[in-house]
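Escalated from tier 1: nickel (II) ion holo job.
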Amino acid sequence: MPHTSLHRTPMQGPAQILTDISDGIGTITLHHEAKRNALSEHMVQEMIQAFDQFKQADVRVAILRALPGIKVWSAGHDVTELPAGGHDPLSWQDSLRTLIREVEVFPGPVIALIEGGVWGGACELVFACDMVVATPEATFAATPAKLGVPYNVTGLLTFLNVAPPHIAKELLFTGRPMTAARLERQGVINGVVPAEHIGAHVFEMARTIAQNAPLAVSVMKEQLRILAGANAVSPGDFERIQSLRRVVYNSQDYAEGIQAFKEKRLPHYHGE
Amino acid sequence: MPHTSLHRTPMQGPAQILTDISDGIGTITLHHEAKRNALSEHMVQEMIQAFDQFKQADVRVAILRALPGIKVWSAGHDVTELPAGGHDPLSWQDSLRTLIREVEVFPGPVIALIEGGVWGGACELVFACDMVVATPEATFAATPAKLGVPYNVTGLLTFLNVAPPHIAKELLFTGRPMTAARLERQGVINGVVPAEHIGAHVFEMARTIAQNAPLAVSVMKEQLRILAGANAVSPGDFERIQSLRRVVYNSQDYAEGIQAFKEKRLPHYHGE
Amino acid sequence: MPHTSLHRTPMQGPAQILTDISDGIGTITLHHEAKRNALSEHMVQEMIQAFDQFKQADVRVAILRALPGIKVWSAGHDVTELPAGGHDPLSWQDSLRTLIREVEVFPGPVIALIEGGVWGGACELVFACDMVVATPEATFAATPAKLGVPYNVTGLLTFLNVAPPHIAKELLFTGRPMTAARLERQGVINGVVPAEHIGAHVFEMARTIAQNAPLAVSVMKEQLRILAGANAVSPGDFERIQSLRRVVYNSQDYAEGIQAFKEKRLPHYHGE
Amino acid sequence: MPHTSLHRTPMQGPAQILTDISDGIGTITLHHEAKRNALSEHMVQEMIQAFDQFKQADVRVAILRALPGIKVWSAGHDVTELPAGGHDPLSWQDSLRTLIREVEVFPGPVIALIEGGVWGGACELVFACDMVVATPEATFAATPAKLGVPYNVTGLLTFLNVAPPHIAKELLFTGRPMTAARLERQGVINGVVPAEHIGAHVFEMARTIAQNAPLAVSVMKEQLRILAGANAVSPGDFERIQSLRRVVYNSQDYAEGIQAFKEKRLPHYHGE
Amino acid sequence: MPHTSLHRTPMQGPAQILTDISDGIGTITLHHEAKRNALSEHMVQEMIQAFDQFKQADVRVAILRALPGIKVWSAGHDVTELPAGGHDPLSWQDSLRTLIREVEVFPGPVIALIEGGVWGGACELVFACDMVVATPEATFAATPAKLGVPYNVTGLLTFLNVAPPHIAKELLFTGRPMTAARLERQGVINGVVPAEHIGAHVFEMARTIAQNAPLAVSVMKEQLRILAGANAVSPGDFERIQSLRRVVYNSQDYAEGIQAFKEKRLPHYHGE
Amino acid sequence: MPHTSLHRTPMQGPAQILTDISDGIGTITLHHEAKRNALSEHMVQEMIQAFDQFKQADVRVAILRALPGIKVWSAGHDVTELPAGGHDPLSWQDSLRTLIREVEVFPGPVIALIEGGVWGGACELVFACDMVVATPEATFAATPAKLGVPYNVTGLLTFLNVAPPHIAKELLFTGRPMTAARLERQGVINGVVPAEHIGAHVFEMARTIAQNAPLAVSVMKEQLRILAGANAVSPGDFERIQSLRRVVYNSQDYAEGIQAFKEKRLPHYHGE
Ligand code: NI
Ligand code: NI
Ligand code: NI
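Tier 2 regenerated the structure:
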């Protein structure tokens, strides 16, 4: 990254992200290492503010990254913020969902720059970016099945849109981390670049885009968003799915998954 | 596979499959080598029974395989069971279609473990599984164009859902076998593992899934199934397609294709 | 290519393509090197005539190629034919769109054989073919963002149908050339073959298909076409998109992009 | 009704419906006047049993009615069974929804014979029948807006499918009863017949249908069901709607509506 | 009708229709009273020729009628032309389906002028016209359930598009004739006019349209056609429906219905 | 109307509407009789401001009306504001389209109260309201075919959503006025009430709705809006339609229609 000073976004409580604008390129750096950059309500609000600030500053391309050399890019949902059983943990107002919509409607491309592990909801956030570049050591793990959380339909659609179905299912059903190299080979991510070069590489990619015609780029992004969301589902199917998801978040396993996570032990599931 | 004894499913006539349940993982082993594991009406009925048995036994993950060391995993449709010209060879009640729906709605993931050649309808069956792991020697050939059979829409959708369109077309239009290595590179299958390790590898994958929350896995599978089938076609387009398919199965070429197969010679087509 | 003589298609003005039929395989060779095989109105009309001629001659497979050893396979739209600002540059009657529909409804598979650079609209034309084989030196660049042209929805759907979304976005947002090797790895193209062998390789592929049952191949191609176009968009979304595109082709940047191209200089955009 | 004896369906607790089969025509008579035939869990279970019994007895047409001369055909949901705030009152497993699906998939037509008032959920049940005949005194009132209940999407689709949108909105937004004469004029119901003749009239209509080819009738009903449910909604829109509905059933107004109903007073709403 | 001379369309065998063009308005008069204007293959071919002739003559509006004073406007399908059991009686190439598509894509509005009875397939043909005007004595009967014929999806969509679902079901399930007055009241037809005035009334309506801007009318008709056919059905649902229809046309009841019709007796159905 | 004083909305230039809020009910009264309440850019902006003001004032129901006793409720588009040929006259940013979206997303129901003639674009505006009540003398005329204007898809969808297709086509193809009585009979409008009572009648209807639970009403309106817009059109069909519409607004007839209107003479069309 050719620009060294990182500025704090003013907000109540200590900031959890850093932002920077340079050459028409806005950078958001996750900076809450104590919580492994978990996507807390607070951090998400800061990111939304940052995207607003970028829009006002006519930013053409945004980069989403963590600090260089980090071990965990983001641990995903702040599990302590998930509701206890009986309520949908992933509704439309959920902070992750709100952030993902923000990324999708930001008028310029958003590039994710990944070092370290990307877990759970952070995995969907990264896949929802327009492009993804990672270091060879980066890994991606989709963990709802590990936690017992019933993922929502638009969330699964993010996975299905960027990954071949067999690969998406392996990610989602095993919950095991997948390497950057494997995901690049299958077109899920755009490139694998060593840590020492990745900042310059992504910035160069952003600069190329920023020199293109911004309106043309912006309308293409919006057209692709509409096409990607055009999997039409009948109301009957959708209500049935919601009902199946409700069984899950009312189940003992759901409570066990969250409890186990908080107690830092393996969950023990019975399918009930 | 860590469990050695394989049990026969009780049924009239000699069984064509073996089934086994261990550690919450059910295994179906195709075992009708005399007919190269062709997907006969009889074998399909046994498989459907096995899936029912798995559901009652709370099986969390199913594995679909053939005997180790086999040359042909399955030859696909039993061509002798296809109707002569004048009737749709691939209707909703066709045994292959029924089996594929069974795989799709089975409440846990189904992993295909592939050694040897996978031909014709068996190719669709394998692609309809949730994950696929193969040995380096495995090959996949989609043969309807070779036989002159007009594939049906949901069948083609299975190919289009798991393979990039240019690759799906190469498979379907040439009918030539494609290697496991190539399909893995393009995200169509999940892994290539040498024959000596593949059993343990797949069983380990299944065990990982079986330890996750079963309800969460199950509802995600169902959501992905709905999304994958959501290619909405207008009634007008569909009836036109049915009509084009009818031209094919009423053609001389269709009769020639089946005849040539039975006489073990190359067909000679005129496009009529 | 086993057949050496290339015949000119009779038409007013010097022909811009060569055509040939042999063994039930029709070949169209772009042959307007002076204009880097730009897809002019004239060339497109010749290609449409050639496809008609192929249909009458019961051609089973078509090959679309340029002369061996060429540096630019096709430069895409003839920019001098694009309308000045204020009118949609990519409407349904646009010659490129007409040609692409012709490729999609041609009753047999169309294989693109690529040497050299493929730019802009030519990139979509090649991706709209049923299969693509390229030499290691071939590159593919989608340039609307460079020119400031708002691409249309069916055009973007061609990209989204054949490439993983993150890769499609990289192509479209950066406008930079992507290598054949990278596109093959991600399933966008079918093979990379050295220049000296590519002719024979593609002809062999075509011959394999031509020996299969033509009606079965033809109806599968049509079914896949219907399924690939089945991304249903609501009229409201569509009219909003048209309106966004109109903003683009009425913008100063659009005029600047075309002007800069004609003056062979880099455009300078302001997002207005 | 030409057949006078009505038989009780055996079940635990006093039966709330009567059933009868004669001439291939099954009749369900709501018979829980003490509760104004509210669609309690218990009554719905009995009706589902009755439809099962009809299927086993090869019933060709079903009639759904109340006792002759009744003032309230059905008061709709048993409001005391609705959940207090915080949970979706109209989920897929809701007894009304289950019953409506039962009516929709019953293999023969279901004719509603209406005397008296039809309120709330009963209004949707009647509209979901295949045909509706009413006495001149019958009235229909859709009351979710009066109670403050957020109706679900498939429920609203039932209204939108059978009534012109402006009429459906008047029913749903005002909550006021609409007369049979008005609904007949606009094609929402099939006929208005004086109380003394309505039984014979409906039975004659049923007999006409019962003499037609049962398989042809049955498959047409199923085709029309599929077409009527084919309003495809994008996952994003659906999740947003679910979220809006959640705001409603978490609101003070929702609690007030149910409370007021139980206290038999007018509710007082604040839009919060 | 202000124009008295009716010209025969030249064709092999005695003509079954009369055609006339005057003031930019083309009139097709069914004229095969011996067969009650049954929609035979021959008559349909003549009608398609007439529409072609109208297009070449820049006809702005077409009128479809029978001779004044006739008792049966059209008896619908020529039942003797329906296939015996085992083959789909209503495929895409069926002459009725072809004619209906011709009416739908004719560039100007088609007005049906109805005196007498309209039966079976003729009922769909009339509903597929853009407007319908009838005498008070006219009646409409949809008879597939009487004959045991499984109607196809686009055919049912024609009914569902023009009639409220409860009315469409009454028509289709009872097979009984419905009066013009009732259909006018519910918006299915546009007007009821006494026999002595109907010719002048319809011609005046046609003249009003013919004086409007033809291109604007034509594109609106096409837009409405697209919107009316936009009930998207998933491939899985469609193939299931085809399979249910196949059960019907393979049934004993189907054969019995056609046999009874030919023997001019009531059919006797068993649901098998 | 129980409230007598009407307040002017502050805005530059003389106000063209009056607004009033009373009992939670907001009323907009068109008041530009000199231009027959044509929907000018200026009037539309005032109406949008009024809806904003209503939202801030927690208005539960809006009434849209003209002054009592008026002869022309609204003449529709201000034809002098339509673009000359060569540009789409009905794009997404068109003031009528913007206003209609405003009506559709206003959180409470909007009731149109109609006296006098409703012409052209005003006809769509009225149909886009949630309910419509008219005096016996009111008439409705859809005039694009008279003017030669190619209507847009969402505009036609408004007609198709509220009127039976045969009636919608009669309105659109003839351009002739239809009476309130006829439209009420077919469910297109909600009631016909004599001029002396209509104000009180509509206000009473609004008050009934305003006493219901506002959140429940609001979410039902939004759900119905989504369902009504869910006619999914494929990108290919849409672009073809746009292209057909372009032919129309580039035609001589289009210019002639606008010219004739300005010169207050009948247009003379040639279909070119
Ligand atoms: Ni800085
Ligand atoms: Ni030659
Ligand atoms: Ni009895």
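Chain A is about 45% helix and 15% strand.
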